[in-house]
Amino acid sequence: MYVEYDRDTCIGMFQCVAEWDAFERDEDAGKAVLADSEEESADLFVREIPEDAEFDAKFAARACPVEAITVYDDDGEQLVP
After folding, report:
1. Number of structural domains, the chain?
2. Which end of the chain has fewer beta carbons closer than 10 Å to its terminal beta carbon, N or C?
3. Whole-model pTM?
4. Structural domain range at position 69
């Protein structure tokens, strides 16, 4: 399972930060940061989700008011949002 985070879409509500500790606040930019991720393209970051964090990652995606976070299974099928 992996997560994609579109930093350009993020509006800095930081609800994801409260739900999953992989997200951190970047107060200077007014956007969240997905720790330990790789930049796939401009402002699109990808990270594997550890098995013990799957629930938190899904909840972070659901909590995002602008759907900047998407969770996929290992086959690339979108699970959330």
Report:
1. 1
2. C
3. 0.93
4. 2-80
CATH of residue 28:
3.30.70.20
- Give the CA distances from residue 45 to residues 17, 29, 48, in Å, rounded to whole numbers and listed in that order: 15, 16, 11
∠ Cα 39 34 9 (to 5°): 75
Token pair 């940061």 is at which residue? 33
Amino acid letter, residue 47: R
What gap in Å lies between CA 43 and CA 55, rounded to an integer? 24
**Residue 81 clears pLDDT 90, i.e. is over it:** no
6: confidence class by pLDDT, cuts 50, 70, 90: very high
E strands, the chain, are 2-6, 23-26, 31-34, 38-41, 44-48, 69-72, 78-80
The runs of H, that is alpha helices, within 20-64 are 54-63
